[in-house]
């Protein structure tokens, strides 16, 4: 079973050309993802860690476009104090967790892959599907929220034409459409774009914050007004701290970007001595990336929160106010003039739009990594363009649902971010616990508890996030299991190899004519069981007398897996010659081995089965869940679908 080759001539009907363009690169994309058919990874030069930091920074740093305004709405005059709580959680919570994730998954798999390894069988697969739902929420809301905030910067700019007034929704849809068009055409050299974009954006923010600091220092009465207003609202410093702790979950957007930072690890150059198994340089430099980004963002978050809270009236942060969703842009226009403010707006719009590109790239990396490997998505989901169309349709629906409002989407965004961080913290806790590092496990456990509290508080306060995530999870679960059911009768074996003993058995038996194989239950290990099985098959099915017989046994190692590479191992025990295989299902593995034997010997093999006792529906469920069930008819159906020519199809006999 190989990837479908889609490249070719443009000749043909329009529908064929459209399909060819839509699925371009499908087989190459299949080879680049882990699992069966995986091609050796080409040598990748990679980039310096600070350049890759800019790639993840378009997501992380772009939150400065809306985070100060969201913090002001959530905490009011206590916004700087709540932001300080957020910074503490970032540096002492999220950063250590993702430094551990970088160590445990150095090839960009992230915390989802860590949890997949922790839980066996179907429980691990279902957990991954649920986490993919939350990841989809995170990345999809990143696209729509960033585009909505970019639209707010367009509308509020004094040089914007009057016909753009109240055009947030259609401008957001236009930006989302432009993002989809870029990916449909082909997205290349993202880092080369991200580096100057992030550098200019941070430089402009430094100018705005510097001007704000000058305004505050030359008018110290503003600080007095702010502190007097805080003390008037809250009776004591302890009350202020308590309120800040209670409201900081609403500021969780300020921690977004860590999952993206781990996802881009394969782009980090590392050391010349790095190997795939031990990329020590890449892990070290990724940790530098995460730490530097967290420190830069923490400084900007605190300074921007102070500046916007002290200099902007609280009413201006409300929905429809001039600072809503664009607090720093408001200060840029107010204190540095409309020309500089417009330059700042352009830079902000660009990085917010590119943050959507970063999120979409994350989705396009995440979905093909898991769903096709589980058999829970068609093979076309490994191609970029069909997925882009699906994600863009979802982005349009979300934009219309929330009316392109930044504040309304922040709850859903925070939910996705916090669930991923909670899963990363839990995975890190389990990982260090298994290594016997008790103190580290206690520390990560405490971080896990804090993230759990933050998530619960956010969901209670803003349930829209969990509703959006539930929709994504439901859609992923339903479509995944429907796809798994539809694809259950594929071969599901990628590559078959024979060890030396198995190859010798096959070649010797083939000299006497077509191979005769008896499918045997591998748990029955005795000379009597094998002799009884052979006698039964010779009595009830037309096995030619005198010819050699091989016993074929399949062990189910993990029925939740969909595809696998298998090795056929031969041995001779209890007076019979056995071919033994491990695979995710019995009938699919037998069918694949039979086809391989046909190609190896040039003769159509014959396989002999016994009927399985039991209800047919129950046996079908056993096949779908446990990988065995009624083997004979399923093997025949798999062969029928894999080989359309009856003359070349291996024979299935049931006695």
UniProtKB/TrEMBL annotation:
Membrane spanning stretches: 70-95, 126-148, 168-187, 199-217, 237-258, 289-312, 346-367, 387-404, 410-433, 440-460, 466-483
Keyword Transmembrane attributed: yes
Instruction: Tell me the keywords, alphabetical order.
Output: Membrane, Transmembrane, Transmembrane helix
Recorded source organism is: Streptomyces asoensis
- What's the protein here called? APC family permease
Q: Which domain of life is it from?
A: Bacteria
């Amino acid at each position: 079973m190989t990837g479908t080759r889609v490249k070719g001539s443009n000749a043909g009907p329009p529908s064929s050309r459209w399909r060819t363009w839509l699925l371009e690169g499908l087989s190459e994309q299949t080879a680049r993802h882990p699992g069966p058919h995986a091609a050796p990874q080409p040598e990748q030069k990679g980039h310096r860690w600070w350049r890759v930091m800019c790639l993840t920074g378009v997501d992380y740093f772009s939150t400065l476009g809306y985070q100060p305004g969201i913090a002001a709405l959530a905490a009011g005059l206590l916004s700087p104090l709540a932001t300080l709580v957020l910074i503490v959680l970032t540096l002492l919570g999220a950063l250590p967790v993702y430094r551990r994730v970088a160590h445990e998954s150095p090839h960009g798999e992230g915390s989802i892959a860590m949890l997949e390894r922790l839980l066996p069988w179907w429980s691990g697969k279902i957990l991954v599907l649920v986490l993919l739902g939350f990841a989809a929420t995170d990345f999809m809301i990143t696209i729509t929220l960033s585009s909505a905030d970019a639209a707010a910067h367009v509308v509020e700019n004094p040089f914007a034409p009057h016909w753009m007034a109240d055009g947030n929704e259609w401008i957001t849809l236009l930006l989302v459409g432009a993002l989809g068009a870029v990916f449909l055409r082909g997205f290349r050299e993202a880092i080369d774009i991200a580096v100057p974009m992030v550098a200019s954006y941070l430089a402009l923010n430094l100018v705005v914050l510097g001007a704000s600091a000058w305004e505050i220092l030359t008018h110290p009465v503003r600080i007095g007004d702010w502190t007097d207003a805080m003390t008037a609202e809250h009776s004591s410093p302890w009350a202020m701290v308590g309120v800040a702790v209670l409201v900081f979950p609403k500021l969780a957007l300020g921690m977004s970007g860590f999952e993206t930072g781990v996802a881009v690890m394969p782009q980090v150059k590392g050391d010349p001595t790095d190997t795939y198994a031990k990329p020590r340089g890449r892990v070290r430099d990724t940790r530098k990336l995460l730490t530097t980004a967290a420190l830069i963002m923490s400084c900007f978050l605190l300074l921007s929160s102070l500046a916007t809270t002290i200099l902007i009236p609280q009413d201006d942060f409300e929905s429809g106010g001039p600072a809503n969703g664009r607090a720093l842009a408001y200060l840029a226009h107010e204190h540095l003039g409309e020309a500089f403010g417009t330059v700042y707006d352009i830079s902000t719009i660009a990085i917010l739009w590119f943050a959507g590109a970063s999120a979409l790239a994350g989705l396009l990396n995440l979905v093909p990594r898991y769903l096709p490997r589980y058999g829970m998505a068609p093979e076309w989901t490994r191609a970029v363009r069909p997925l882009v169309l699906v994600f863009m349709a979802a982005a349009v629906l979300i934009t219309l649902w929330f009316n392109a409002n930044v504040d309304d989407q922040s709850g859903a965004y925070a939910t996705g971010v916090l669930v991923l961080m909670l899963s990363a913290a839990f995975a890190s806790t389990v990982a260090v616990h298994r290594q016997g590092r008790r103190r580290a496990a206690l520390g990560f456990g405490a971080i896990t508890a804090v993230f759990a509290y933050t998530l619960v508080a956010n969901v209670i306060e803003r349930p829209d996030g969990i509703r959006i995530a539930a929709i994504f999870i439901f859609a992923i679960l339903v479509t995944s299991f429907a796809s798994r059911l539809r694809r259950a009768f594929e071969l599901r074996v990628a590559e078959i190899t024979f060890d030396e003993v198995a190859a010798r058995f096959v070649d010797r038996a083939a000299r006497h004519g077509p191979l005769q194989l008896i499918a045997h239950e591998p748990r029955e290990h005795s000379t009597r069981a094998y002799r009884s099985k052979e006698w039964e098959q010779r009595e009830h099915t037309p096995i030619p007398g005198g010819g050699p017989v091989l016993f074929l046994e399949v062990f189910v190692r993990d029925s939740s897996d969909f595809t696998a590479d298998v090795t056929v191992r031969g041995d001779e025990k209890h007076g019979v010659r056995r071919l033994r295989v491990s695979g995710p299902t019995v009938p699919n593995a037998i069918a694949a081995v039979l086809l391989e034997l046909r190609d190896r010997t040039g003769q159509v093999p014959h396989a002999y089965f016994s009927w399985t006792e039991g209800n047919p529906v129950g046996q079908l469920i056993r096949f779908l869940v446990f990988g065995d069930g009624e083997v004979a008819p399923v093997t025949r159906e798999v062969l029928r679908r894999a080989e359309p020519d009856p003359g070349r199809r291996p024979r299935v006999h049931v006695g």
